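Progress against Task 2.4 (sequence-to-structure conversion) is shown through the following example record, which the project officer requested during the mid-term review.
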Amino acid sequence: MSLDDITFRINGCAMKVHNVLGNGFQEVIYQRCLAIEMERARLNFGREVEQIIYYEGAQVGTRRADFIVESRIVVELKASVNLQDVHLAQAKNYVAAYDFPIGLLINFGATRLQFKKVFNPTYPKIQ
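Structure tokens generated for the chain above:
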């Protein structure tokens, strides 16, 4: 499955969750519901996965990713009224620090679902 196919399916799962719940819940509620939808979509994922943070090839720490999907995409969730630049910067930093090709930033807190795809500029050719 291509990265585009995976991100399309994740986005569809997130849209279903947002359509059913709307906005106003805590992030953990959306995280649990998204896990249910990704299981239904038969996506392989881990939730709250401990990830090593790299700095110029050296391991410098760890942080839990909301989701790692198909061992190729890091998904960061938010439940804010609106996405801010700091959220996008965080997602970009995570995708690079975890050494993944693509990351998704999904915000359930807004009236309409907000969805951003971020790329790792240092990752070899993305397929």
